[in-house]
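Exercise (ungraded).
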Amino acid sequence: MGFMSFFLGEKKQTASVAKERLQLILAHERSGRNAGTPDYLPQLKAELIAVISKYVKVDPSAVLVEREQQDNLEVLAVKIELPDAR
Amino acid sequence: MGFMSFFLGEKKQTASVAKERLQLILAHERSGRNAGTPDYLPQLKAELIAVISKYVKVDPSAVLVEREQQDNLEVLAVKIELPDAR
């Protein structure tokens, strides 16, 4: 299943009100050799949100961050509900 | 299905060689009111890759970009294969 069908499925569940949303997903798959490298995802996430804020008005209270880790895979999901353009 | 199970499923398909990978997915769901706002995703994508390059060495030839659009949903996927840490 590709990304589009994944997000379309998600969209149907949250389709209550037609809001503008931006989702940023970071998936980091480590190989054994780099297992010891420092975890830069949290810092990277903060910088990526800062870049996004240059393009759209981001209300910090409308930013939802989810983080999951399993085996050598770490997934960071940032969901941003955007204000209606006036 | 959550993001983790989605990426774990993807991982199984590409599990040939244990490489370090970073995937950045941007999903932009427009509401009707903002349909006319300019498309900033391509420019945003370039800046996000630039930020990622501050954290990990990104070989431009190892960056795969996929873009899909359906209804008011646009998904941009950036797959980066990272060099082994020496």
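Further reading is listed at the end of the chapter. For now, observe: The domain at 17-82 of chain B is CATH 3.30.1070.10 (Cell Cycle; Chain A). The first helix of chain B runs from residue 3 to 13.
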